[in-house]
Automatic annotation (TrEMBL):
Pathway: Porphyrin-containing compound metabolism
Membrane topology of the entry: Multi-pass membrane protein
Keyword Transmembrane helix: yes
Name of the protein described by the UniProt record: Cytochrome c oxidase assembly protein subunit 15
UniProt keyword annotation of DNA-binding present: no
Native species: Cupriavidus gilardii J11
């Protein structure tokens, strides 16, 4: 079974690998980094689709499905489980959703292994430490382990949220790696004043992603059924102790009782309230970033994605948690993270020594000079 699963992951990864490796361009490493980052974003969104369709236990073992590499081979077991519990988590469709997610994750792992190989074999040409790519490989291995724990520990909320946060950390690491592989940008020295605001923005977003994941994995999206009030009140009755007890089974308190509705309200209300803090700060930061030409495009995209996040977040409440809006909301959080990491990296260039900035200026002007000479 393990051999079959490995072959499936390899076959899926062959398409992007072939696109990069057969091309004659010399920046294969850079192209592979950005393709892997794009597919990691897709994987995060498909992971949210898996969670939101209750497919996380579609195959209740790991890494296969009832000991098989695909749901077709496990048909007998799946039908038996579905017959025994018709409203349970195991169905043929959910099994396929879960296994496709795993296949996709294995393919991303193969791409990251290829990145590490390129990083070590071309380390002199790339002029950057191959340990950076190796660290990403370690991170994806830890992420895979928590993917296994998500299943074996029956969707325990803190495990699911950790799995989400590790996926976001993997995406951020790939964006940073891709940014380092791009030619340096000429960033005005004055933009360096935004370095600490960028770090604060990343910290606030990380907290909000945790809170959003905590809402999703506890199924607390509809704990407040109206907006801007919560169940007709500005400050409803809430149970913070049970709501934010981290180590407990899904749907239960730490004492083994069913989790009260007031705890779900507390989870939802905190995420909603903190969202306005993050929204206001990121909007300010994006507006400031637009003042500097090399940062303006990403700052503008940051403002646009914030509008998308507000719209999808509200639609989850107003329109009773539509699947498309919920998946888009998760994807929007990942896009915000990508943009902030990219902005943070480019802002950091403004604080580099003058020699680095001169190299950036040379790389920026060289194509234009070459064109004029021809």
């Amino acid at each position: 079974m393990l051999t079959q699963l490995a072959l499936i992951g390899l076959l899926i990864a062959l398409l992007p690998l072939s696109y990069v490796l057969v091309r004659s361009s010399r920046d294969k490493y850079r192209k592979l980094v950005w393709i892997t980052a794009f597919l990691t974003l897709d994987l995060i969104m498909f992971g949210s689709f898996t969670r939101l369709t209750d497919s996380g236990l579609g195959c209740p073992d790991w890494p296969g499905c009832y000991g098989h590499s695909n749901p077709y081979a496990a048909m007998e077991h799946i039908r038996a489980a579905e017959t025994a519990m018709p409203s349970g988590p195991v169905t043929f469709v959910k099994a396929w959703i879960e296994m496709i997610h795993r296949y996709f994750a294995m393919a991303v792992g193969v791409l990251i292994i290829a990145l590490v190989v390129l990083a070590w074999t071309r380390r002199r040409e790339l002029k950057q430490s191959p340990w950076l790519a190796t660290g990403v490989l370690v991170l994806v291995c830890v992420q895979g382990a928590f993917g296994a724990f998500t299943v074996t520990m029956k969707l325990q909320p803190i495990i699911v949220v950790t799995h989400l946060l590790l996926g976001m950390a993997l995406l951020a690491s790939l964006i940073w790696l891709g940014s380092r592989s791009d030619p340096p940008r000429l960033v005005p020295r004055a933009a360096g004043r935004l370095l600490w605001p960028a770090r604060i923005a990343l910290a606030l977003l990380a907290i909000q992603i945790f809170l959003g994941g905590w809402v999703s994995t506890n199924y607390a999206v509809l704990a407040c059924t109206d907006f801007p009030l919560c169940n007709g009140e500005w400050v409803p009755r809430m149970d913070f102790r049970n709501g934010f007890t981290l180590w407990r089974p899904l749907g239960m308190t730490a004492d083994g009782a069913y989790i009260p509705h007031a705890a779900l309200v507390a989870i939802h209300w905190v995420h909603r309230g903190f969202a306005f803090v993050v929204l206001a700060y990121l909007a300010w930061f994006g507006w400031r970033a637009r003042r500097f030409e090399p940062l303006a495009r990403h700052g503008g995209w940051l403002l646009a994605v914030l509008v998308l996040q507000l719209a999808t977040g509200l639609s989850n409440v107003v329109f009773d948690w539509p699947l498309g809006a919920a998946v888009a909301h998760n994807g929007g959080a990942a896009l915000l993270l990508m943009l902030l990491v990219r902005l943070h990296y480019n802002i950091g260039l403004a604080t580099q020594p003058a020699s680095v900035m001169e190299q950036a200026a040379d790389l920026t002007t060289r194509p234009a000079d070459t064109a004029r000479a021809s």
